[in-house]
Design brief:
The chain has two helices and four strands.
């Protein structure tokens, strides 16, 4: 069965306690970004092609607001409300990566047993 959507967008809406070392996407406006993204997809008439969902923790809040677009598996970081229209126009409609929003590499340290 083919996927029901051309693209699927996940916006991290994870909420961590205040003062957490990684921060959280919710405190950076991710819920507003997700709501605007969904509304814009509907307004532009492409919500049947592109699905936007809230995501739980994507484990990248330090580079958040984190947004992932599938099927490409493109991770965007530090996304703001002002970036959403460009993301829709360039990536979701025209399939072009928004280079300036690509998530920087996150260095993870291995936990000791």
């Amino acid at each position: 069965m083919p996927p029901p959507f051309k693209r699927h967008v996940f916006v991290c809406t994870n909420r961590r306690p205040d003062g957490h070392s990684k921060g959280c996407c919710a405190s950076k406006g991710s819920e507003e970004i997700r709501d605007y993204l969904k509304a814009e997809l509907a307004r532009r008439g492409i919500k049947s092609e592109c699905r936007a969902n809230a995501a739980g923790c994507l484990d990248a809040c330090e580079a958040g607001v984190s947004v992932v677009v599938y099927p490409e598996g493109t991770w965007y970081g530090r996304v703001t409300l002002a970036d959403v229209d460009e993301l829709i126009e360039k990536h979701l409609i025209h399939g072009q990566i928004v280079e300036r929003l690509l998530m920087p590499p996150i260095v993870r340290t291995k936990k000791q047993p």
